[in-house]
Amino acid sequence: MIGGERHLLSMADLDRDDIEQLMALTDSFVEVGERSIPKVPALRGKTIAWLFYEDSTRTRLSFETAAKRLSADTMNFSVSSSSVNKGESLRDTVETIAAMGVDGIVVRHSAAGAPHRVAEWVDASVINAGDGWHQHPTQSLLDLYTARQHFGDLDGKHVAIVGDIKHSRVARSNALAFATMGAEVTLVAPKTLLPAHLEGWPVKVTHDLDEVIDDLDICYLLRMQVERQTDAVVPSLREFHTEFGLDVRRADRLGGALIMHPGPMNRGVEIAGEVADRPNAVITEQVANGVSVRMAVLFLLLGSGLDIVDGKRVAA
Ligand code: CP
């Protein structure tokens, strides 16, 4: 269970204690990953299906690696070669997969709320691997874990989330995640790349990256989500880079602050190519931590009656 739920659908469902529990368990799976044979039998006999209706490199591969390290069986589903192309609905597809016997379903879909619907239709645990503009909770958890490796706790740390906030599920997840852990979050974007309404977001907002850059502990950059943009949102990518990109001059002003990015990056747009390779750019650390964090999530949701309290495994 995570946050008293058998699904992981949104960061809004997790409080600080839930996140602390996940971080503690992730520590133990990082240790597993460092062994010569990085595998444990924790989910032997469990079956997990991947239901990815949108492209993915990091999320899908790290979930697959996490499941294999936990000795789970996996059921691969590729939309491009499935009966979705013959018109089969999401519900019929999900119920077909569930009929074969699965314990967990990891869902990525372009529609906000799709994983919530899937959770209503099946008995299996459902994990949101990204739904439209809405949420990407495992991305947030791996980002928190990575930031905490560098800072310890995040109370009072200043995090700027920069770029295409409007179309970004990572922005929505991470604003909640970092604020829940006590950080101060500032969104940095032109008006055209901000949501129309920000009521309820635990954030400050600025349209000027140079106004906050000297004060940051974390500069979290977002890709232009061109696949979700329906209007022209910036005059040109070159102008966006000039005004909101992390170029060499701005990166120098960050000092040792962390540079984070969920990937995939567009070098030369939101981040200068050279900046992405600096020692304080922890983008590959984020990717590596994704495996251990997703092991923790799978273990808590699908594991056999164990829970984690104060970093120790106890009967749930
Ligand atoms: N960060 C992230 O979700 O990357 P992928 O789209 O490659 O999974």
Q: What is the 3D form?
A: globular
Structural class: alpha/beta
- Give the fraction of residues assigned to helices: 25-40%
**Helix and strand succession?**
HEHEHEHEHEHEEHEHHEHHEE
Could you tell me the CATH topology label of the largest domain. Rossmann fold
CATH superfamily of the largest domain: Aspartate/ornithine carbamoyltransferase
Q: Main sheet? A: 5 strands, parallel
- The CATH C-level name of the largest domain is Alpha Beta
Strand content: 15-25%
Instruction: Identify every distinct bound molecule in the structure, by name, code or SMILES.
Output: phosphoric acid mono(formamide)ester
Low-confidence segments, given as residue ranges, are none
Distance between the termini: 8 Å
What is the chains' assembly state?
single chain
Mean pLDDT figure: 94
